[in-house]
Write a structure and sequence with these properties.
This protein is 38% helix and 17% strand. It contains 18 helices and 16 strands. Strand 15, helix 13 (320-323) and strand 16 (330-333) form a beta-alpha-beta unit. The protein starts with a strand and ends in a 5-residue tail after the last helix.
Length: 417
């Protein structure tokens, strides 16, 4: 039995059911394997009182410290985050989690985001003497990797990890450019529930929504990074096309104003955050899923849309070329309204069959994702080595236990480390 500790600050709870849902789904698939036991530590960062009383932190404060999700134990230790002192977060998470982890049986730590999870995993590995892996997902590399004090810690953790994962080949290249060891990085694509996300009768789905003509869906947090404002602007050049915005965020008011200014307010619907179970119908009803992100790793919603038979109009970022691998899968466009409108027109004119679009998603599955993750983590654990199941160096690397940091220095948070 391989005993895995999944360390992830991206993980859903009752108040944030879609937060880090892709990590929860991957964890469940891994736990479903007969020879793997998983526990989750989903640390919650909170500033000191009285800042922690702000409404912004209400959902985090109310999350239970312990619960079971899909039969998997989930622990949520609170750790201190301080405005403008983000480089301290990795050590703070490790310090908060360590007392709990000393009580749990663990063969390997699986960190699901580079910051602060991956850096915390490095410190916990030192304290507990167990190997660790870190998975990069996109913003951890593209955003946090631009912050010098954080980047130094991330690169240090990458060099001491037993193995590294990237959600796309493009993200792997970005990791290498930061100075992370190329021979330790394996590409680990996301999965998709191919039964849940499947084609629907598009005409009937549109009719149920009260929509005639073309339909676009843009699913993601309403933040500048995702570029929904550009889709709203593009709509002015796409008569008889309606846009559904699925998600919420600080840009909602600005987007409503932009829609009014562009004269398309009557063709833009703000649906807010929707339960994940509703997403297949919304994606399946659309003629295209449009998301002109500034940066991504490999967005789950890309694959979910394709599984529903809905082509993509997305920017050429992250692993986009690994997903839009054929004309039926959609178009890669420049990040401006004119290019987005042109891409949508091409997709609407081509009208690819849903079954042809879905072919691009069939290589993504949670069962395949889980089996690849199991092999990767098993290759890092001493039990895997004894069983002769260590992977080749092109997939993962041999386990190297780093030198221990004295416990007194670890607990005091010596900044020299």
């Amino acid at each position: 039995m391989l005993r895995v500790l999944t360390l992830s600050t991206l993980f859903p709870d009752a108040t944030r059911p879609t937060f880090g849902l892709f990590v929860a789904r991957q964890t469940r698939a891994l736990s479903d394997l007969d020879d793997v036991a998983v526990q989750v530590v989903a640390g919650i960062g909170l500033p000191p009182w009285p800042l922690s009383r702000y409404a912004h932190y209400a959902a985090r404060r109310s999350a239970p410290p312990h619960e079971a999700r899909d039969g998997i134990p989930v622990h949520r230790p609170r750790f201190r985050v301080l405005p403008r002192l983000e480089p301290l977060a990795g050590r703070a998470l490790a310090r908060a989690a360590l007392p709990l982890l000393r009580t749990l049986p663990i063969d390997v730590i699986d960190a699901e985001f580079f910051w602060p999870d991956g850096v915390a995993a490095m410190h916990l590995s030192d304290a507990l003497g167990v190997p660790f892996s870190i998975k990069a997902r996109g913003s951890d590399i593209h955003y946090w990797g631009t912050r010098p004090a954080v980047r130094r810690q991330m690169v240090a953790a990458s060099r001491r990890a037993g193995g590294l994962l990237a959600v796309s080949a493009a993200l792997k290249a970005s990791m290498i450019a930061l100075g992370m060891p190329q021979d330790r990085i394996a590409v680990h694509h996301t999965g998709v529930d191919l039964d849940l996300f499947s084609p629907v009768d598009r005409s009937a789905a549109k009719a149920a929504l009260g929509i005639d003509g073309g339909l676009l869906v843009s699913a993601g947090a309403l933040i500048p990074l995702k570029g929904q404002a550009l889709v709203v602007e593009a709509l002015a050049a796409l008569p008889d096309v309606t846009l559904l915005l699925v998600g919420d965020g600080p840009e909602r008011s600005a987007l409503e104003a932009r829609a009014a200014a562009c004269g398309v307010a009557d063709r833009v619907r703000f649906l807010g955050n929707r339960p994940h179970a509703e997403l297949p119908t919304l994606l399946g009803a659309a003629d295209a899923m449009v998301l002109p992100s500034e940066r991504e790793g490999l967005a789950n919603v890309w694959v979910e849309a394709l599984a529903c038979g809905t082509p993509l109009v997305i920017t050429d970022v992250g692993g986009a070329r690994e997903v839009v691998d054929r004309p039926e899968a959609g178009r890669l466009v420049a990040r401006n309204a004119a290019a987005i409108a042109a891409g949508v027109r091409e997709v609407l004119a081509a009208a690819p069959a849903q079954t042809a679009v879905r072919q691009s998603a069939l290589r993504f599955s949670w069962s395949r994702n889980a089996e690849q993750l199991r092999r990767h983590l098993l290759s890092l654990s001493p039990s895997g080595e004894r069983a002769g199941e260590r992977g080749s160096r092109s997939e993962t690397v041999s386990l190297e236990i780093p030198h221990r940091i004295p416990r007194s220095q670890f607990l005091l948070g010596n900044p020299s480390k």
